[in-house]
Design a protein that fits this description.
With 359 residues, the protein is α/β, with parallel strands linked by helices. Helix content is 38%, strand content 10%. It is built from twelve helices and eight strands. The strands form two sheets. A six-stranded mixed sheet has the order 1-2-5-6-7-8, with helices on both faces. Helix 8 runs antiparallel to helix 12 and helix 9 packs across helix 12. It is globular, with a radius of gyration of 22 Å.
């Protein structure tokens, strides 16, 4: 494909689709009573990574005015772009991964015959059940975002550190037990050793009494490294750019999930609250009145932000703007109440940030 169409954008097709949809909104939304100058994009998980991409892509500028990132990271390491052609130490290029994918189906070489065979694959074979490698421990067959020099030119972290992102209002945050399995360790000693010279600080922040269970500590450290600290980092970068940012933490545990969610709220569980669609799925539990009240509150904050760039409004507890000096967040607490105040995880995130800078 690189040889056939050297000047054509390629690889980042989902991002191209998203940009095409946003461009369609710009051209057409006025006909539906909408305002092309008041567009908010938001996404969760990989969708949050998409928002980071559009906030930093030259091809997305002017297509939206506000952004919400739910559990989408912000630092290098999770769905970070990779080079199109040049393999790097511990980082294969997208083209090498494409060759791996072809071999997954017995297709060798990179000539015209190989291309014909690849184009004959079915949709199911191309999707490959969502697999990212050719079996456990096998070669990578999924590239993720690709640096093409035009749509994706750098990581979100490098753009934020240099202040090259769009200047728009931002909501960003994570769930209280957002990422399980990202950090692995057989013992607490091995876990805290991953903080390097900040090991003692990490022990003090995560397990000062020495009574924490390893599974719980791994969830805490993984959530902080992948989601909570990168969210704070991103919010601070937007404030430094002169844009308002609002940081949240979703910790609400519905009565039906108290046994299953003993370490906190898992990845993705906040989505039906943001959309206020609890109970809409065919296999979802019937929401309680408290669940529905929390969903209405979250949805109202999100809708207010989409309208005005500020989540606050009548009848809602005040959500303060992010200020790195005071580090206030809005937490939807385990009982469902939205409470603003200094982040109780500050010591954890500080040591996580220090360890990230040292790596």
């Amino acid at each position: 494909m690189s040889r056939e169409h050297p000047d054509e954008l390629k690889g980042n097709y989902a991002y191209m689709d998203q940009i095409a949809a946003l461009a369609w909104v710009q051209r057409n939304i006025a006909a539906f009573g909408g305002d092309p100058n008041n567009v908010t994009i938001f996404g969760e998980s990989a969708g949050g990574v998409s928002v980071h991409t559009h906030l930093t892509s030259p091809l997305s500028r002017g297509l939206f005015q506000k952004a919400i990132i739910q559990s989408g990271g912000g630092r290098d390491g999770v769905l970070t772009g990779r080079p199109m052609r040049e393999d790097r130490p511990k980082e294969l290029s997208a083209e090498t991964i494409g060759v791996n994918f072809a071999r997954r189906y017995g297709i060798e070489g990179a000539d015209e015959a190989a291309l014909v065979k690849l184009r004959a694959l079915s949709v199911a074979e191309i999707i490959d059940g969502g697999q990212e490698s050719a079996g456990p421990g096998g070669p990578a067959t999924y590239s993720g975002p690709i640096f093409d020099g035009r749509l994706t030119v750098e990581t979100a972290q490098s753009a934020y550190e240099a202040g090259r992102q769009m200047k728009v209002p931002l909501i960003i945050g994570a769930n209280s037990a957002d990422f399980v399995g990202f950090i692995s360790a057989e013992t607490k000693e091995a876990l805290f050793a991953q903080f390097g010279e900040r090991k003692a600080d990490a022990i003090a922040a995560y397990d000062a009494a020495g009574t924490g269970e390893l599974k719980t500590l791994l969830t805490m450290a993984g959530t902080d490294r992948v989601q909570a600290e990168p969210a704070r980092f991103t919010a601070s970068a937007f404030v430094a750019k002169g844009a308002p940012a609002y940081v949240y933490r979703f910790s609400y545990i519905p009565a039906a999930m108290k046994e299953q969610w003993q370490n906190g709220v898992p990845h993705g569980a906040e989505v039906p609250y943001a959309f206020n669609t609890l109970g809409a799925g065919p296999r979802t539990a019937t929401p309680t009145s408290q669940d529905q009240a929390v969903a209405r509150t979250v949805n109202t904050y999100w809708a207010n932000f989409a309208k005005t760039g500020d989540p606050n409004g009548p009848g809602l507890p005040k959500w303060p703007r992010h200020d790195p000096a005071t580090n206030e967040i809005l937490e939807f607490r385990p009982d469902g109440s939205p409470v603003a105040g200094p982040d109780p995880w500050k010591a954890r995130l500080d040591v996580t940030e220090a360890a990230a800078k040292a790596r």
